[in-house]
Amino acid sequence: MSGLTDVPRENEPETAHSHESWVGDVLRHLAYEDQRLSEADILTPIPEDFVLTWESVDSILSAAWKTDREELQWAMGVQIARQVRYDSAGAYVFHLGYASPDRYKRHVRLENIFTAYSDSTWGDLVEEVIEFFNDPKQEYGWSLEPAKQNEYANSVITYRRDLATAERRIRRALLSRWLRLVPLVLMPLVLAVVGWGNLWPEDVPDLRTFNSVTISVMLLLVVVFLVGFFLRVKDKKHGVRSVFLLRRDLEIIHDRWILNASKTRPTAERRDGYREHIPRVIDRLRRDTRLYRRIHNWFQWGVFFASVGTTATTAFWETPQPGKTILIALGSFLAFATAVTGYFKFRERAYNLQQTADQVEQHATAFDLGIAPYADADAAVNLKRFAENVETLRMEQRKREQQLEQPHQGQADVI
Predict the structure, then answer these.
(1) Each residue of 77-95: b (16+ CB within 10 Å) or e?
(2) Cβ-contact 63, 57 below 8 angstroms
(3) Is the pTM of the predicted complex or chain greater than 0.85?
């Protein structure tokens, strides 16, 4: 415990009854100026030039760890995470069992730990420091009691597992429905073609090949239908579950999670988890960017090849056929590609998403590094400012998406 001067060793007074019994146990394990304090030092005054530092606080917590007192178990799990960019007055506090030593935890000011008076003693110092950290309701980056922390962590795991299971069941039910629906729609058409070919065989060049092909198609449709039938989602309790019922179950899972989070997770906790959610937001933005850019590029390459093909077809085929058919197909594709890219604006959507992703990533990096505009000494202020900036960027992104859906006059009105 640096910064302390030696305490005069006079007749050791008896332990004060105003202090808790564990204070003396902590003092016996607390080194001071290479000397071991005793239980009687509870009443020894603190030197006037005493300066409480985070090293001193850490020494007191380490001494509490050695006492093996049950009433100090919460404080014994507390550790201090010093941050280089802050002065010695502040540090991040975290609990080994319920938090992690990262920069998103609450920044605790040193003056909140101990208030020194002219008659303050070693017992006052130890008791005040330990009691400050022994309260699990203190907001050091966690604001739930240990039992609530475990309960909430388990609820998050359960929610994520139930959500993934429900979404997977919905996808399977949709696949099963389509695999059963497509054969049912196509089978009458195939049977009609088979009947036409066998009733008017003179219109079919090779009836044996025709029947072989149609029978193979019907068998394939039957196999597809059976696969879809066996892929149906079933429960032992409710039997076959439709897509509607599965989606209703998914909504129930979301509603339960909202109710649970609103009861067990205060605003400070939700804000702490917001930063951890940002990488998934950036990944989703970049994934959508790649999707729109890929669609735009495919259409552009198609337009390029169709344009070249139209010119080449006109030059090589002087006769109407087959050049005319090729020109019709290429011209139709050019008109379709131009209309689709002009209406859906894939390039503009990709650009907007890329811009938003870059801006959000820039704010996340600045927050991690503690640079402007997130250079405040209080981590809670930085996190609040970070959430506001990111949500503003996402709102601007949604407005740009809405503008792309509007006609030109509507865009002018929105802007």
Answers:
(1) bbbbbeeeeeeeebbbbbb
(2) no
(3) no
